[in-house]
């Protein structure tokens, strides 16, 4: 069976275009949906429709667990599942999707290998052994793709939190300076920062819920630092724990930490601006200078040849 090369190129171009659009739009849509779900569950309480969605999700989890047992994933230790759970929490993803992530690590090598083998065999007409070799390489890449995607998601989320963290500290400082308690201040800041920083808003809403439900307030605050994995958040958590332990005022400490984080963000922006000229050297040599030489030399060459 032969496949027309032009038709295959059109199909692959369309698939690439759709994938690019999904990659651009899905993080924003997922962040908006996740923020609305967190607000409904932890502020307004669960609704009957959400109870039905949970009841529908349980059979899906059972099906995933059955598939995992079929491929003999009993070797997945408890520590490994806890590690995946922590990474999903750091990425801002639902914590009940550990089975789905493990299943993706199983299915992605198969899908990558089959797709790469069919693509190479249909487009370039290579033999089966060459296509099988390409499939093995694609399977190795497919096995690491879920981990790479999750790591990139965590890094992007940390970058967004780091960028808006000084503003959150300023708002938290003003709320606590006005006499609000910690829970009320976090709720107020989460509500105000929902449009500009949904990740920080989600973390504050979860922290308020844990402060209300957990017996140890220290554990609730430490969970906030563990989920974000940022030193700046760890500093604020340590200050909040010490203030509650010794009964000290936290408003002045928050103001100082907000000033330090703002100065740190400004220094990082200066470092990026200073590193821009060396990074532009290679693109200018490779892309700009040949075009510039062609524009300068082409008229003289045309006159000389004429």
Mean pLDDT: 76
Helix percent reads over 70%
Q: Major β-sheet, in short?
A: none
Number of strands: 0
Instruction: Give the termini separation.
Output: 54 Å
H-E order: HHHHHHHHHHH
- Return the structural class: mainly alpha
Transmembrane segments: 6-31, 98-120, 132-155, 280-302
Keywords: Cell membrane, Membrane, Transmembrane, Transmembrane helix
Membrane topology: Multi-pass membrane protein
Pfam family, one: T2SSF
Structure commentary:
Keywords: Cell membrane, Membrane, Transmembrane, Transmembrane helix. Pfam families: T2SSF. It comes from Roseicyclus persicicus. With 306 residues, this protein is mostly helical. It has a domain at 162-267. Helix content is 86%, strand content 0%. Helix 6 runs antiparallel to helix 7 and helix 8 runs antiparallel to helix 9. The relative contact order is 0.06. The model is unreliable at 41-56 and 71-75 (pLDDT under 50).
Write a brief caption for the model.
The chain is mainly α. The chain contains eleven helices and no strands. Helix 4 packs antiparallel against helix 5 and helix 8 runs antiparallel to helix 9.
